[in-house]
Write a structure and sequence with these properties.
By secondary structure, this protein is mostly helical. It contains 5 helices and no strands. Helix 2 packs parallel to helix 4 and helix 3 packs antiparallel against helix 4.
Length: 171
């Protein structure tokens, strides 16, 4: 079961890597076409938006679960280690509340885009499925935030288990 979950969790990472590769290919071909052949790729900007959105949101739940977001930890050097769990529970619950609102609003937008059949201007890519994907990834990130709060309450949060993370060097 654990191996199966590990492989399943790797799928979004592979998808994000594929989107990054696709973004690089489109950018290189577009730049060469634009400056060498005076013929840029039509819709390259639309592809860029799709590739970036899929790549970023695909890994959002896993990054949230691991608490590997970009962070500035200016106070962690002086923050008492015994308060880390309480801080992280509060921060995860607060972030989950914001993500619930974001997920709700994105879901409404996704349904509207799908019902209206909205597409991109040049390539005609449907906007609804991308918005559904983003809303789904936000929902999964919300679940990860709530699970993190529970993990900290049980003494098993990411910052409580891994040496070298914020607060581990504070007594």
């Amino acid at each position: 079961m654990k191996i199966w979950l590990g492989r399943l969790a790797a799928v979004p990472d592979a998808l994000a890597a594929l989107m990054l590769l696709a973004l690089v290919v489109v950018t290189v071909v577009d730049v060469i076409g634009r400056y060498v052949f005076r013929a840029p790729i039509g819709g390259a900007d639309e592809l860029t938006v799709y590739f970036l959105a899929i790549g970023i949101y695909a890994v959002m739940p896993r990054i949230t679960w691991r608490e590997e977001h970009v962070a500035v930890d200016l106070i962690d050097m002086v923050y008492p280690k015994r308060w880390i769990a309480a801080r992280q529970i509060l921060m995860n619950l607060l972030a989950a509340a914001f993500m619930v609102v974001a997920t709700w609003r994105l879901s409404i937008l996704a349904m509207r885009l799908g019902e209206d059949g909205e597409v991109t201007m040049y390539l005609g890519l449907p906007k609804g499925p991308l918005a559904v994907f983003i809303a789904l990834m936000c929902a999964l990130a919300t679940v990860a935030l709530l699970a993190n709060a529970l993990r900290y309450a049980r003494g098993r949060g990411p910052l409580q288990q891994h040496p070298g993370h914020a607060g581990d060097h504070v007594g």
